[in-house]
Design a protein that fits this description.
- The chain is an alpha/beta fold and 509 residues long.
- It contains 19 helices and eleven strands.
- Helix 8 packs across helix 16.
- The longest helix has 25 residues.
- It is globular and about 65 Å long.
- The two termini are 43 Å apart.
Length: 509
């Protein structure tokens, strides 16, 4: 840990000008210190990557707690060298950081990240552009606008569509529900909810999504004042897709109960099963009932990169709004996501003018102040990561990565079935596989306990990381494949580890 006494001695006697090198990297006289600092940080990462062969160290919660119990913020850091701080960071964070790039990390929707995007991160943080207004971003605004137009074209939206970069799928889904809510209120009640608030009838608004859709829909409905009860979960078919006949029945049932349907959310890539709802059919239902249609393609949005699999998103072009996470299937660092709307005039539901920031006069002059489209004000230049990635690598190369992980997922599902000791629930549309270890099918074994034990034991061991979930109250294991470098042999080795811990459980119980 850092020593306070040395830290204080280090800065004693330094002039104000000498102290500047620690805080203002932009000053010309500090360029050497800046470059040295960046090199030290890069070296720490390189050392971390060279010394970590497994996705997790296996450190226990108690071990990590003890390390931090020795840290007193007010007593450390003042005057320490970057080298000392990085050495401390290794013990506190780097040595135990989860390695998403490891071939045996197949747990959550965390992708390995591409070098061009990492180079962009250095530029983003160092220049520290804020993307809310033109006079804070200049060329950065047009890089974001260019990428928004590119994505809108890939979705298949018309020329008068629009979008904005966001922090992630939860924020993007919130914007979709926000526009759906306010559009309905404006059309039905002829009031502006930004000014007048929600009408009393809002307690009866209903939004329909599949029973395996993302939890952010309920969370956002609560934040939007509609309550979690406004979300109506529609049963799925055997492929874990929303059943449109059941959807129609659910809409009619809510109407007969006196409730007010306002929107449908289709999912293109469910978190657990990577299933894709029948978007074209849902769009038809939405049109029939005059409902807002939002598509949560946070996971599946990367299919637009693939010539082979882009057809799976057919129908997304008919939606009113859509979510795409670049930090999932575009291999970008967190955070990098987007929200897209079919009709750019719908941005009026969230647009505000601040005289000091984006006055009406500036809008009339044609200044592209992006803050009018965002629920954030200050916002990072995250678009640069995707820009540098596409400019250096191109869409087709990224599409090949998507093709590779989908093929690997299909191979993996087949491999698990052929082993005979695994129950596989789904055939992956993208790259998620839900299964459980069951060595003796048909017997009365507590499969929930054994599979929960397997996941926990594997995490504590650290050699391979997988996820778990519940399906109809039963514990299952899950692979989420997002690393194009992972091979079938890696998954076979992970299956061996699962079997090993399963067999240990039976021996001990």
């Amino acid at each position: 840990m850092l020593q306070k006494s040395y830290a204080h001695q280090l800065l004693d006697g330094l002039t104000k000008d000498q102290l500047y090198k620690y805080i203002f990297s932009e000053l010309p006289e500090n360029k050497a210190y800046y470059q040295k600092s960046m090199n030290q940080a890069v070296n720490a990462i390189v050392e971390h990557l060279e010394n970590r062969n497994e996705p997790f160290s296996g450190a226990s919660l108690e071990e990590v707690k003890v390390r931090f119990s020795k840290i007193f913020i007010d007593d450390t850091g003042y005057g320490a060298t970057l080298h000392e701080v990085l050495d401390e960071l290794k013990e506190l964070y780097l040595n135990d950081a989860i390695s998403f790039h490891n071939r045996k990390y197949v747990a959550h929707l965390n992708c390995p990240i591409l070098t061009p995007a990492l180079a962009a991160e250095v530029i983003i943080s160092s220049i520290n552009t804020s993307m809310d207004t033109w006079d804070q971003s200049a060329g950065g605004t047009f890089i974001e606008l260019k990428l928004i137009d590119w994505t809108l074209n890939k979705i298949g939206y018309p020329v008068d569509s629009d979008g904005i970069f966001t922090s992630g799928g939860t924020q993007s889904n919130m914007m979709g529900l926000l526009l759906a809510r306010d559009h309905f209120i404006h059309q039905r009640y002829k009031i502006d909810p930004k000014v007048d608030g929600l009408p009393p009838e809002a307690t009866r608004f209903r939004i329909f999504c599949s029973e395996v859709s993302h939890f952010s829909l309920k969370k956002n409905a609560a934040l939007l004042g509609l309550g979690q009860k406004s979300i109506v979960s529609v049963p799925v078919n055997e492929y874990y897709q929303m059943d449109t006949h059941t959807l129609i029945h659910a809409i009619e049932k809510e109407r007969l109960s006196g409730n007010i349907p306002i929107a449908i959310v289709g999912t293109a890539g469910t978190t657990d099963f990577s299933s894709i709802d029948p978007l074209s059919d849902i769009a038809e239902v939405a049109e029939t009932y005059n409902l807002w249609f939002h598509v949560d393609a946070a996971y599946g949005g990367g299919l637009v990169l693939s010539d082979k699999h882009c057809y799976k998103l057919k129908g997304i072009e008919l939606s009113d709004s859509a979510t795409i996470d670049y930090h999932k299937t575009f291999f970008q660092p967190v955070s990098s996501s987007g929200f897209f709307m079919r009709n750019k005039t719908h941005v009026d539901y969230i647009k505000y003018h601040a005289d000091y920031l984006n006055s009406k006069e500036q809008e009339e002059e044609g200044l592209p102040n992006m803050v009018k489209k965002s629920i954030q004000t200050t916002r990072r230049f995250d678009a640069l990561k995707l820009w540098m990635t596409l400019r250096m690598m191109g869409r087709k190369k990224l599409g090949q990565y998507i093709d590779d992980i989908i093929y690997l997922a299909q191979q993996t599902a087949l491999m698990l079935r052929e082993r005979g000791k695994f129950e596989v629930l789904n055939q992956p549309e993208i790259s998620a596989i839900v299964f459980r270890y069951n060595p003796i099918p048909g017997t009365r074994i507590d499969l929930c306990s054994v599979n929960a034990h397997i996941r926990k034991a594997m995490f504590n061991e650290g050699k391979a990381l997988i996820a778990s979930t519940k399906v109809k109250g039963q514990v299952y294991l899950k692979f989420t494949l997002l690393n194009p470098l992972t091979e079938l042999k890696d998954l076979e080795e992970i299956a061996d580890i699962i079997q090993k811990h399963g067999e240990e459980y039976f021996r001990n119980n």
